[in-house]
Amino acid sequence: MVDHGFAAATFVKAVSEDLNLSPSLLPVDILCRLEAESCDARVVLTGKESFDEAKWEKLLLQILVATSTSKLIQAEHQSQARLATSVVELGIVQNVIEVLKRDHSNKEQLYKSLTKILLLVLTNPKVLTAEVVRFLRTLQQKELSHISIQAVVTRLFSIYEEQTTIPQTSSFKYLRFQRAIPFFPDYGSHITIAIPNGILTKSVQMKCISLLQKMSGQCDGLNNPNKETAVDYNVGFDPKIWVQWLELFQLKPSSPLVDAVTDTKPENNFLVQHPKLKQSEIHLWFFIKGTQKQHCDFLVKTVTDFCEENTLRWIVSSAYKKNDGKLFGGYFMDGISNAVDAMSLEREVLLSGISPKAGESNCEGGTFAFIQKFRFDVTVFSDSPIPVKENMIGRDGTYSETLANIEERAHVKKARNIRPEDGTNAEFLRQALPIVTSESHLEHGLFFAAFGKSIQRFFEIFQNMFGDPTTDFTHDLLLTHVQGDAGGFMYCPSANELQYVPTFTESTIYPSIPFWMKYKSSNPLLFYNHIQYLYFMTTNQYAGGDPPSKRVLHLLSTTFQRWHSTWIHKFDVPRMPHLRTFLDEAELKSLDTWSIPYRKGLSYKKMLGSVLTSNKECPAADGNVYGTSDNFGTFRINPKELIVGVTDRLSFGSGKEVMPYLLDSELDLSWDLALTEFGNMGHIVPGHRYILKLGVNGMLEKLKGKLSNPQLTDEQKQFYNSAILAYEVQYACKHNGIKFGSQHYCSRAQDIIDSFFIKFDEHVVLNGYNIPYGHATYGSTCVTGRGGPFGTGDSLNQWIQQVTLGGYTHDGKDACNEVTMLCLNACRRLPLNAPCVSLRLTPHTPLIYKEAAAKAILSGGAHPILYHDDRMVGGMLDALKQSFLRSNLALPLDLDEVARDYCADGCYEPMYEGRTEFLFGYVFLLQAVMYTMNCGMNYQGAGPVNLVGGSMSYRTEMPEDIQTFDHFKKIFLLHLRRLVQNLFSLILGSYGCIKSGRDMSNGGSRFHTLTPMYVGFTNTVNSLYNVQEMVYGPNRTTSLKSFRMALINNWGVNMIEPFYDTVDVRVVQTEMWSQKYLAMREHALSLPKFGTPTANSEVNAMAEWLADNMNKIAYDVLYNSPVTELYRGLQKKYDVQGKPFIFQLLTGAGTFENYVSVGAGCGATPDGRLNGQPTASDCSPQPHAQDKPVPKTKLLDIVDSLKPYSERNLHLYIPGGCEVDLVIEEDFPMSSLLEFIDAFVAEKAGSNLVTITCVNKETLANAENEPQKFDLVRNRMGGWSNFFVAMFPEHKKQHQRRMYFGPHKDSTK
After folding, report:
1. CB of 560 within 8 A of CB of 185?
2. N or C, which end of the chain has less CB nearby within 10 Å?
3. pLDDT at 552
4. Within its chain, how far is the Cα of 1014 from the centroid?
């Protein structure tokens, strides 16, 4: 046993004496451990009088290895003040520099001096300044014979890099040695050099190294720290010449180089064989890049002087950016879809993760280049019609944005090579500069350079673009106009391979492509596009100060690339085949005898256990092969993932694919009930805690235990057998190589949360025209029963995934915790739209969580939703009590606890985890208004066929017979009650879990939530108020009869027969009435509106009256109408002893994302809305008229405007969610947002939940014209967020016309 105390003391004493350093400067813990573990080290200590150079070198190397991962040397060893004092007193850095400048012969002194620096750096890294690094670069260039010296210098460079402001990504580790790769210059010169006989000599090699070092120094001297001027260069070698280079250093090429010089590989001969391309004699290539021509010329002269001195042949081709970087006469912007961020560069461009064998060169950080000088006649292209040019390229000529519908041979499509297994694009980094004639200043060609991981990568994409070299047919339309004149494949070694270390500081991180930086928010937490986001996150410029980890940024970069592919590529999935196609002959004979629950469980086992979770072929009876990556795309594992698995490509709007299991004989009944295999999904919150507590094996044991009960009915046995089959999918997955519960070590819990969030956004589609469709069917709804289908075009990129944070603990304390903060951090730092995150705020929520929520909102994702927890709990508790009391049942003792234990479903509707069956359907409030105005008929269909419209409800009084507004309201409530009764009859007429032995859709859960979702709340409040004022008020302006006629004719916009003659000779009379109705509409639009400062007490009272009656009607229909008998029948059928079957009524008012489709089914309404125009979202203020121009932003007071929402009726009688969707500008002050959150919690503004989108109107306008530059802009749809650029035009228009809110007028007090 080693006496650690004695060893440490001895070692410290020896080193401190030998190096003349204070013992306080030595990292005791690490040196102690090294000494205790190394006999050689002990020999050094005990025998220091005879200095053992070899053993000292070995010990030094051990220290270097250990300190590369050690973080022990921090302030705990001694205070920063003491460290600073020691550094000043000893003057170590200056002393070492002076000594080494004077004398390089004293080897032992060199060891000691370098060790001094190393030990000092370990205790205070700040002393390793740029001055010291510059000296060490000079030192490294000397031919030092001892490897330990090189090791020390290399380690010091590594420490210096780690301590600079450059973020710690492995990509930037490589970029330090390929710093010019992501530099997109204004001026460029390509210098191609030929070496005599193609043979590299040692003399030329050493002179070349000196040249590179000289050029690097020149760049350092010319570069402006403010990035106003910059100059740099790339250097490349013919791969065969580079092999000679290595051989001169007695090194062998590693595998990427071996592939590049293998003549039998087809990619290496592609340039020689293809008539469109040219392979030239180029042995050495320089690409000089700069922001100023004179700087480029200066470096060009340095290279040409080198060529003259060494009798080398060279050609200089100079080019420069013109037309803002657009090529082909200023029409085509090249390089937009480039791998320019640090993560993409590592993944797609730079060689990384290479493990060279003994004697091989380490090529990490190297890259391959394809260079080609193209010529073309620009006039041929310029003279083509604009549509022809746009189709040829695939982008519009004004903004260089990708076209929505792209010609199959368009350049942007052929220049991509989409990987079918994961949807990413096999990218490389492309840079092109036009070559211009000095006389005409017209382009006559361009010099093109591309960088990638392998020549094979170029070959794959070139086959897409150029086609088969044996034919004259060129796939890419743009390339039919160009011809290669000179070029070849190059290998660009890293500076490390070239044996010099260029300086790399923050000032040498070059700006990203101007295309992506054209617009930038004044809000430093908000990013407009993914390139902008990754640039700031990976260059230590994130204002939040805590960018995601390397792992997370890698995952995000891959995800962004997958999104970006959807601009040009449509990813679809096949139809899932029927269960019968995966059964063997014996199983097929039994298929007809199996119950529906058994077939359901077996289909899940087959689907999840093989078809979707295997990369093995899964042959089916239909002749197809399933289970491979290019079918459903669900078998994919990224090495950097912490959460393994893949969500399917189909969002809610696309429909779903599950394995059908119903027999043909059962289809008619399933149609009548609207209950299919596709229907029971989403808006149901499983008992996650229960499942996680037991685990999959525990759940199986639980189910088998339940099945062993002899008292079970046949129905219960079928349910348990079905559930067992579904859970047995675990074993099928194991068989296919998926290991459940694999142990991933993660040093940061934030990474786990971040990875979890990213998982739900893998299949975002940015181009709405490429959304997969054709997968929806009858019964495809997100709720149990007949609630859909919903408007599929409204629901793009909706994944129905929710995370609920905060609330109350069981003992009544605020429940926010560390996981809450991790999730709020993820909302702020990750530019995603899912999962939908909700934060339950209580009066006791600590300030740090409200601040984190405010920052997340300001980052632009419209997350989190803010719940007023006391109001939500109060409303739900009241609804629970009503459901028991109205059924004459005693109140359970745990109702208070149950109400506090709610969470949100896929949007924001509250329910109880693992215990709730959720049923809802829409009640169209505006339809009740139309029926009241029009005798029970829908005037949206008025005209020559239906005259005043089709009958939809009771035949009620003619407009002229409704003499008072109270009479009008009475008729309105009559029609509203009819609509609610229709909904309840539909749901209950076509009407689970382990504890009851019943499926969720068969009465199996403890709680059954029935939600009539009253849509169009704000428009209805405003419509009722307008009728009151314009028809019955003291300043009345019209009659109800004339009002109806104005609405039938769409406020005069569409005058229709038979009410007005549209024959040309009598059109003047019709136009007169049209103008009258248009003037009526302007008056209607000018009246006070709910949720705005213009709202008066009467408008606010109308909102309370409506909310009160919505709730009363729902209860009255359920308990006092023909629906009641249906309800009692269900109770009799599904009651279980100790668990009665009752419905909890949770009245809601959410349109969610369906404000467009809701409005499409309503004619013109008294609030000024035109026929078919969208309604307001949820209970939000009514947006500006969709047919009018987007008005200038007028900010409403965020507190004063929302005071009416705080009235009791709106939160108590709309417990299912009275959501208000707010929009604020990007520079909304943090302090003002916190003030609003406090006012919301204090019940001074808002109802029971609010959402806040942070985006400028100007941003949305620019995003409409230039969508790719704004691919991260997100807007709250209602229950979830979507990417603005992915929306269809009607949605975009509605968002641009929503009301904007500014700080409270007293916010400065």
Report:
1. no
2. N
3. 93
4. 32
